[in-house]
């Protein structure tokens, strides 16, 4: 699956692989050891945030689980 | 968002199918209501909308459904989903997994809408999906909504995937959606369109999830008659699932 940032897809893939493995093998089994994916996420995240700014995607200031509390227009 | 539901009561009907597939998705009977959204945006619009509710049983264990949930894109039914990104993720001190994903989807409109809203064609729809995984009570709650084109139509969808201790091979999916449009004079056809597209997307979403689930099942199956070498990368009779990675 592609990232919204064209140059970020490979970083996304690496992060996704790490997350999926951690999720199934650690998180779902109640293993609370540290998340091994944070570095990968950081690289990927930096790339995506840049693309989001360039494309002017309005994700700023959107409250978590906040859809029901948002104003009607955008 | 304040909502006044319609005066009439509604009854829920659920159906469940059982069969040989890895994931059998029960038939969905949706209840529709008109609702008035008593909220004024800054431009003074009063939103009118449609409410959608459904319950479905998925014949897969909750763990598997969740693992597949993160991996459902791309799939043969999701050609309208162009990009998927994780923007945020956190495990809270009480062991909830919070995530935010950004999706871009094509903005497929019926012809009449293309004539009325020519500017809308150029931009995809940006959708945010926020989710909370609660391992303790075996639930995944998601909230998905579009962050652009919202004045024309806003769709907010809330899903709960719940595992039940007494039914370990099933997962109950409860889905609600609020479809609203603030465009004066056109809100009804827009809502109707929105609802039709939502239902069509819902069918695709379930098929996509089934697809991801059956890939997971294949990945963990031990094929009879294969050499021991081929089994190296597959799980041997262990209970863990190795997630199938999409290219």
Notes on the structure:
The complex is a heterodimer of chains A (74) and B (247). Chain A has 74 residues and is mainly alpha-helical. Chain A has a domain at 6-55. Chain A contains 2 helices and no strands. Chain A has helices at residues 9-25, 38-54. Chain B has a single domain (6-245), classed as Alpha-D-Glucose-1,6-Bisphosphate, Chain A, domain 4, CATH 3.30.530. Chain B is 20% helix and 36% strand. In chain B, strands 1-2-3-9-8-7-6-5-4 form a 9-stranded antiparallel β-sheet. In chain B, a hairpin with a 2-residue loop joins β8 (154-164) and β9. Mean pLDDT of chain B is 73; it is low at 1-33, 36-46 and 223-247. Chains A and B meet through α1 and α2 of A and β2, α1, β4, β5 and β6 of B.
Q: Structural class of the helix and strand makeup of chain B?
A: alpha+beta
Morphology of chain B: elongated
User: Can you give the helix content of chain A as a percent range?
Assistant: 40-55%
With strands numbered from the N-terminus, the spatial order across the biggest sheet of chain B is 1-2-3-9-8-7-6-5-4
Assign the CATH topology of chain B. Alpha-D-Glucose-1,6-Bisphosphate, Chain A, domain 4
Give the tally of β-strands of chain B.
9
Number of domains of chain B: 1
CATH class group of chain B: Alpha Beta
| Oligomeric organization of the protein chains | heterodimer
| Biggest protein-protein contact in the assembly | A-B, 41 and 55 residues
Q: Determine the structural class of chain A based on helices, strands and strand pairing.
A: mainly alpha
CATH architecture of chain B: 2-Layer Sandwich
Our count of helices of chain A gives 2
Any idea what the radius of gyration of chain B is?
Answer: 20 Å
Instruction: From the alpha carbons, calculate the radius of gyration of chain A and give it in angstroms.
Output: 15 Å
Q: What is the overall pLDDT average of chain A?
A: 89
Note poorly predicted spans of chain A: 70-74
N- and C-termini, Cα separation of chain A: 27 Å
Q: Order of SSEs of chain A, N→C?
A: HH
Domain PRELI/MSF1 (chain B): 49-221
Region (Disordered) (chain B): 225-247
Pfam family, one (chain B): PRELI
InterPro entries (chain B): PRELI/MSF1_dom (IPR006797), Slowmo/Ups (IPR037365)
């Amino acid at each position: 699956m592609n990232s919204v940032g064209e140059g970020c897809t490979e970083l996304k893939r690496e992060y996704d692989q790490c997350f999926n493995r951690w999720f199934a093998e650690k998180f779902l089994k109640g293993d609370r050891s540290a998340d091994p994916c944070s570095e990968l996420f950081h690289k990927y995240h930096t790339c995506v945030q840049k693309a989001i700014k360039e494309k002017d995607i309005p994700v700023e200031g959107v409250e978590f689980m906040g859809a029901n509390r948002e104003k009607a227009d955008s | 968002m304040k909502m006044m539901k319609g005066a009439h009561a509604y009854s829920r009907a659920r159906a469940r199918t059982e069969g040989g597939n890895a994931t059998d998705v029960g038939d969905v009977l949706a209840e529709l209501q008109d609702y008035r959204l008593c909220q004024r945006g800054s431009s003074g619009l009063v939103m009118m909308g449609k409410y959608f509710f459904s319950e479905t049983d998925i014949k897969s264990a909750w763990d598997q459904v969740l693992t597949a949930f993160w991996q459902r894109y791309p799939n043969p039914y999701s050609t309208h989903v162009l990009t998927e990104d994780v923007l945020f993720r956190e495990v809270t001190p009480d062991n909830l997994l919070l995530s935010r994903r950004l999706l871009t989807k094509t903005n497929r409109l019926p012809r009449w809408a293309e004539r009325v809203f020519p500017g809308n064609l150029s931009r995809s729809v940006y959708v945010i999906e926020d989710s909370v995984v609660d391992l303790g009570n075996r639930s995944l709650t998601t909230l998905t909504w579009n962050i652009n084109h919202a004045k024309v139509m806003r769709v907010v969808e809330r899903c709960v995937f719940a595992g039940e201790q007494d039914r370990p091979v099933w997962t109950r999916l409860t889905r609600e959606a609020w479809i609203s449009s603030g465009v004066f004079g056109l809100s009804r056809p827009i809502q109707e369109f929105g609802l039709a597209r939502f239902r069509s997307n819902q069918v695709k979403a379930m098929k996509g999830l089934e697809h991801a689930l059956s890939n997971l099942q294949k990945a963990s199956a031990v094929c009879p008659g294969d050499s021991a070498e081929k089994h190296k990368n597959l799980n041997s009779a262990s209970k863990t699932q190795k997630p199938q990675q999409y290219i």
